[in-house]
Design brief:
The chain is an alpha/beta fold. It has a domain of about 170 residues: Rossmann fold, CATH 3.40.50.720. The chain contains 12 helices and 11 strands.
Length: about 290
């Protein structure tokens, strides 16, 4: 007897650091995937088995072709919320299940309780999803281990000292692959309706200790030097909005002297422990070496 056809899953943010791995996880599980991308040329970076649709969350009607016949959707939201209601309304009309990549803005830890414009955006989307009655799951990654690539890799590749503020601030970096694995599992597996999962790595590490761990993996010393918040602001203002810089500085300041918030959600859902920061660094060591 033939098996019933599995409905496709739509992945938004398909070329992002989480969405791209969600696609691989779903394909490995035999789930057909549709990817929503801003540009058609992005199809070249996705596996051939993926059905690619060009669309934009700021133009809700462009989602309609991608949503027809879809069973579940992975929602990543990084744009203003003006069109959010229309997008969520479309999701509710087509899919049975939505998994939303949010943030731990409700988590009772000083690191997550600082003013954060992205948290406000996420809270708005969550309210819209809840109002539809859709079967939904919210996943809330803490600090991503992969932030190290943007923050510290350039200096480490150049053999320079890593200069950074609040080296004593503790976080529990979570591997993007663990976040993606949780998303893929909750997209394709029953039992996660109403789930609200804060995802963290398994250990609390200061930022300076994270830099040291990268050096250990590379088998060389990576020097760390404390930078003042004002120095960080002046350097970061060319590459990041001031609101994002202020949010990071406030969060790190609040985390000094506080062990990071750690959950067992990754292990509970996947049945395997989350990757450590050192594992992440070892797997990404080439990104920290010259010529990469």
């Amino acid at each position: 007897m033939s098996q019933p056809a599995i409905s496709p899953v739509l992945v938004t943010g398909a070329t992002g650091r989480v969405g791209r791995v969600v696609i691989d996880q779903l394909l490995d599980a035999g789930v057909p995937v549709r990817a929503l991308t801003h540009r058609s040329e992005a199809a070249a970076t996705l596996p051939a088995r993926v059905e690619v649709f060009t669309g934009d969350l700021t133009v809700p009607e462009t989602l309609d072709p991608a949503l027809r016949g879809v069973g579940a959707a992975f929602l990543v939201w990084t744009v203003p919320t003006e069109t959010a209601a229309a997008v969520v309304e479309r999701l509710a009309a087509h899919v049975q299940r939505v998994v939303f990549l949010s943030s731990p803005h409700q988590t009772p830890h000083p690191f997550f309780q600082q003013p954060n414009p992205m948290a406000a955006l996420h809270a708005d989307i969550e309210r819209l999803i809840a109002a539809t009655g859709l079967e939904s799951t919210i996943i809330r990654p803490g600090m991503f281990a992969s932030n190290s690539l943007a923050w510290w890799a350039p200096a480490i590749r150049a053999g320079e000292t890593v200069r950074w503020p609040y080296g004593a601030a503790e976080t529990a970096p979570v591997d993007d692959r663990d976040v993606a694995a949780v998303a893929a599992r909750t997209l394709r597996q029953d039992g996660h309706a109403g789930g609200d999962y804060v995802l963290t790595g398994p250990e609390s590490l200061t930022q300076a200790a994270q830099v040291n761990a990268i050096g250990d993996v590379l088998k060389r010393r990576v020097a760390f030097e404390e930078m003042t918040p004002d120095e960080f602001r002046s350097l970061a203002e060319r590459t990041a909005p001031s609101s994002a810089v202020d949010m990071l500085l406030a969060a790190w300041r609040a985390a000094v002297g506080q062990p990071a918030y750690i959950t067992t959600a990754v292990a509970d859902i996947l049945g395997t422990p989350p990757r450590t920061f050192r594992q992440w660094a070892a797997d990404h060591a080439p990104a920290f070496t010259k010529g990469s």
